[in-house]
């Protein structure tokens, strides 16, 4: 009986770790905001939308070589979609870099809320975690 309790406790810890691994921390949101601000600075310096987004997608492939717990921000497909949508906004709706960063921080902060009714998944009423204007 004690063995079953130990196994149950271990499985609950593993499930909790998996759920929390996909929820961005405050620090990750800050770093993501800096990344989006830098995307806007790159845009202002002349980088094209296609070049920037292609590079991001290549980076996503490289990042997947690392275990999720060692990755920065982009730990799963939802994270990729969220960061990519924010970068697309930088090029599709140009605004000063600080405005893009602020929008990202607000949206990222909303993603840190865990919805207990969704089995511990991030609360994402829009489905993809995309940033919308």
What does this molecule look like?
The chain is mainly α. It has one domain. The chain is built from five helices and no strands. α2 runs parallel beside α4. The longest helix has 20 residues. It starts with a helix and ends in a 22-residue tail after the last helix. The relative contact order is 0.17. About 26% of the residues have low confidence.
In terms of DSSP E residues, the strand content is under 5%
Structural class comes to mainly alpha
Number of continuous helical runs: 5
| Uncertain runs | 4-21, 115-130
- What would you call the shape? globular
Helix content: 55-70%
Strand elements, count: 0
Distance between the termini: 54 Å
Question: What is Rg?
Answer: 17 Å
List keywords for this structure.
single chain; 133 residues; mainly alpha; 5 helices; 64% helix; globular
What is the fold's blueprint, element by element?
Elements: H1 2-21, H2 26-44, H3 49-63, H4 77-92, H5 97-111
Helix pairs in contact: 2-4, 2-5, 3-4
Quick structural summary:
This protein has helices at 2-21, 26-44, 49-63, 77-92, 97-111. With 133 residues, the chain is mainly α. The chain has one domain (2-118).
């Amino acid at each position: 009986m004690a063995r079953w309790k130990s196994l149950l406790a271990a499985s609950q810890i593993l499930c909790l770790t998996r759920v929390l691994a996909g929820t961005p921390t405050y620090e990750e949101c800050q770093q993501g905001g800096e990344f989006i601000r830098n995307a806007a600075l790159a845009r202002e310096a002349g980088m094209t939308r296609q070049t920037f987004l292609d590079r991001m997608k290549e980076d996503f492939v490289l990042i997947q070589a690392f275990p999720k717990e060692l990755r920065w921000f982009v730990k799963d497909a939802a994270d990729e979609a969220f960061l990519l949508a924010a970068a697309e906004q930088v090029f599709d709706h140009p605004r000063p870099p600080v405005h893009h960063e602020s929008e990202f921080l607000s949206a990222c902060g909303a993603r840190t809320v865990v919805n207990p009714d969704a089995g511990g998944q991030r609360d994402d009423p829009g489905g993809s975690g995309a940033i919308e204007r």
